[in-house]
């Protein structure tokens, strides 16, 4: 007969934190959100940590190069999706590693003969107010001058005139030479009171631009996640089918961490994949395993397999229909608590601390906070990032509101058969485990994270915690009744505002 667990499968929204003593001097500014991704051996630092406990999901509609750059700049990590050919995944990883913070390839350029009317149209379309003028109008052509929106008057000047009649000509352009350091480029901007510094190679061709606003932005992002060579960090998803080819190519491209992307990682296929990487590369690479939802899965992938971190979650994702389709899964809170309990016991037994990632189903900021208080070291999110400006999908207007497409890896659209198949070569998806949907556009990654992390820090202060480790240790959670959920909302007042969702931290859109 089957074993029936006596506990109920529970979700994050069924729990609340009890406040604990906040010490004098504690505040949101004193909270440290760094979290390990690599296993922590006793009395040693983890081989790799994130500066904020947030990573983006291994999904086509989430983790492309732009999102990876934006998230690393905030201190988190993306796992570039593996449901694409090895070459294109490698190219995305390379783009992130090649992104020199501060040096950008110019994406709006004109020729000397371009008319002011055409320039204005370009400026409106791209939102850029400074445009390089190159001989062929390309981002790497010979620089002829610079034109900004202050160099002409739209309603006074003859808009059929060419840009070269209004631009700052090369004789007056302040520029830097290719190879210049960012510090030196910023010094030139400061010294000459400029907003934009073109960088030219020995032939006078444009290679990149440095903006004053990026310097200011950099100062505002002190948590940027950088490797030893000061390049942004990026993770890469891998599967159990082609890791022998994919992992070497990704290591070559500079990926900082790997994560098996599987709806069910409690398999011998994943075990073999982990062992293969360890045999080839030793303890060097950071490897995440999963997903698991039980202590039994933890023991298999950690004790026997040797992963660095473990991902927990099955069936909770916003686009996920696995539980309905197959009858497997577990309430995310129950799954997390079970695995965390085993992780803590394993730490007591061996002195090895295994970071746990809570993956999927986080529907608002409160649930992120609860997941971290329950013992997750960091969270992985799909929908949260799909809704940002930097996700790889195009914006779409529906009834006057901007949306972005968001689809599961288990859809026909994603064609990610590797994530769901059993390791055998049955490359056919007989049924879907995810849906194809739209989510509202909420803004840039930096803005949404700012609010989320401020709330997290604020709750940690309520609990008297300065670090995430203290947060887990000090957290006391209580189960809530349906009536106390009603009590927790506003009551007996009329609300005329439509901003309530935003105020309550709901990310919008039906789940
Ligand atoms: P979300 O943050 O709730 O949107 O969940 C994202 C997570 O859902 C991912 O990190 C995956 O673990 C999981 N996931 C991605 N695609 C699918 C799918 O098609 N079906 C089920 N789960 C999925």
Within the largest sheet, what's the order of strands?
A: 5-6-14-15-16-17-19-20
Low-confidence stretches: none
Report how far apart the termini are. Answer: 36 Å
The DSSP helix count reads 17
Total count of strands: 24
As a percent range, the share of helical residues equals: 25-40%
Q: What's this model, at a glance?
A:
This protein has 511 residues and is of the alpha/beta class.
What does this structure look like?
The protein is an alpha/beta fold. Helix content is 32%, strand content 18%. The protein is built from 17 helices and 24 strands. The strands form 7 sheets. An 8-stranded parallel beta barrel has the order 5-6-14-15-16-17-19-20, surrounded by 6 helices. Helix 4 links the parallel strand 11 and strand 12. The longest helix has 19 residues. The chain starts with 14 loop residues before the first strand and ends in an 8-residue tail after the last helix. It binds inosinic acid.
């Amino acid at each position: 007969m089957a074993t029936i667990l006596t506990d109920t499968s529970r979700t994050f929204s069924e729990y609340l934190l009890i406040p604990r003593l906040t010490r004098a001097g504690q505040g949101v500014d004193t909270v440290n959100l760094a979290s390990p991704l690599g296993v922590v051996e006793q009395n040693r630092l983890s081989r790799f940590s994130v500066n904020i406990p947030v990573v983006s999901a291994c999904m086509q509609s989430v983790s492309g190069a732009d999102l990876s750059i934006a998230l690393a700049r905030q201190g988190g990590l993306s796992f570039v999706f593996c449901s694409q050919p090895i070459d294109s995944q490698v190219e995305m990883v390379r783009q992130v590693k090649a992104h020199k913070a501060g040096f950008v390839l110019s994406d709006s350029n004109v020729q000397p003969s371009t008319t002011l009317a055409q320039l204005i149209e370009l400026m409106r379309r791209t939102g850029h107010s400074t445009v390089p003028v190159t001989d062929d109008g390309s981002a790497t052509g010979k620089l002829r001058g610079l034109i900004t929106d202050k160099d002409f008057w739209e309603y006074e000047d003859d808009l059929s005139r060419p840009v070269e009649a209004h631009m700052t000509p090369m004789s007056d352009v302040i520029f830097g030479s290719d190879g210049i350091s960012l510090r030196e480029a910023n010094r030139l901007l400061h010294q000459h009171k400029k907003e934009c510094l073109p960088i030219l190679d020995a032939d006078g061709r444009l290679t990149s631009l440095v903006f004053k606003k990026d310097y200011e932005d950099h100062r505002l992002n002190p948590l940027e996640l950088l490797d030893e060579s000061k390049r942004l960090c990026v993770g890469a998803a891998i599967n159990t089918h082609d890791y022998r080819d994919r992992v070497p190519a990704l290591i070559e491209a500079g990926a900082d961490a790997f994560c098996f992307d599987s709806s069910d990682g409690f398999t011998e296929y994943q075990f073999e994949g982990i062992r293969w990487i360890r045999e080839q590369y030793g303890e060097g690479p950071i490897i995440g395993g999963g997903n698991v939802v039980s202590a039994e899965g933890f023991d298999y992938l950690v004790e026997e397999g040797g992963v660095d971190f473990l991902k927990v979650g099955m069936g909770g994702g916003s686009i996920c229909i696995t539980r309905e389709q197959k009858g497997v899964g577990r309430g995310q809170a129950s799954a997390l608590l079970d695995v965390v309990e085993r992780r803590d016991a394993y730490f007591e037994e061996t002195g090895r601390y295994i970071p746990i990632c809570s993956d999927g189903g986080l529907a608002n900021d409160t649930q992120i906070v609860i997941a971290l208080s329950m013992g997750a070291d960091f969270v992985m999110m799909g929908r949260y990032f799909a809704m940002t400006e930097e996700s790889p999908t195009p914006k779409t207007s529906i009834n006057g509101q901007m949306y972005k497409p968001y689809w599961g890896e288990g859809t026909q659209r994603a064609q990610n058969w590797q994530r769901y198949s059993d390791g055998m070569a049955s490359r056919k998806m007989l049924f879907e485990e995810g849906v194809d949907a739209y989510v509202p556009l909420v803004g840039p990654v930096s803005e949404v994270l700012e609010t989320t992390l401020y709330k997290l820090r604020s709750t940690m202060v309520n609990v008297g915690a300065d670090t995430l480790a203290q947060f887990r240790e000090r957290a006391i959670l209580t189960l809530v009744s349906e009536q106390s959920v009603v009590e927790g909302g506003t009551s007996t007042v009329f609300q005329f505002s439509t901003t309530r969702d935003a105020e309550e931290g709901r990310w919008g859109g039906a789940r």
